[in-house]
Amino acid sequence: MPAPVNRLKQRLAAGETVFGCWLGMADPYAAEMAATAGFDWLLIDGEHAPNDLRSTMAQLAVIEPSPSLPVVRLRDDDPARIKQALDAGAQSLLIPMIETAEQAARAVRATRYPPEGIRGVGSSLARASRFSAIPDYLKTANDQICLILQVESRAGLAALDDILALPGIDCVFIGPADLAADMGHLGNAGHPDVRRAVLGALTRIAASGKAAGMLSTEEAFIADCRKAGARFVGVGIDVLAYVGAMRTLARKYIPG
Fold it and tell me: Using an 8 Å Cβ cutoff, are 192 and 185 in contact?
């Protein structure tokens, strides 16, 4: 029996556009609620949300039975953290702050078992192999990893073509907030220069044949990004949706 088919990888490879939401509440109950909403994918954020390995694993467990496909964003490209996330059952990873082709190649190797990579072998006790219930896991796991690399700096944009030339990368995601800060527009991801840079990068990614990814809560900019070629499309953040709804309700009854 082989590793489970990664339907997100499959859909991106087929040229589909998939829509999803960021999960930052770091709670399996909230994740389970989000999994009833109907998104194509849900991203468990381990970079800026207060998630650890156990909370990430608990959220994977409640999302997996739903139609939504789980993605895990790690806090960095540390191979040890990548290994733990994969052993915990994540098959789709988003790695932030990629700035060079060398760094991107290391991330690819960290997600693959030898000889293609350097992922440590501990599947016999791992959730990923259903605790040894998948006998062919080691031989088939590499083919089911969906790797999304996040480029979010001027250095990363300068290296983008070299990153895109590498095998083993399914999607390159452009992070507008950090890119804005690096471009001198901290807190203003909507600055025209930043938006031009984002749209230009998405166009280059799409032209390479890899999937292009982005996140925005603005409908008009989402439409612009889709025209530029974005196919891994984040359209919301659970924390913002929650506090927005709560504040709107409060203002309805407690003006001022």
Answer: no
191 is catalytic: no
What phi and psi, each to the nearest 5 degrees, are found at residue 102? -65, -45
pLDDT tens readout for residues 92-140: 999 999 999 999 999 999 999 999 999 999 999 999 999 999 999 999 9
Q: Which of 7, 48, 154, 191 is catalytic?
A: 48
- Between CA 29 and CA 195 the distance in angstroms is 35
Which residue segments constitute the domains of the chain, with CATH numbers given? 7-253 (3.20.20.60)
From the first residue on, what is the mean pLDDT of each consecutive set of 10 residues in the chain (256 residues)?
96 98 98 98 98 98 98 98 98 98 98 98 95 96 98 98 98 97 97 98 98 98 98 98 97 88
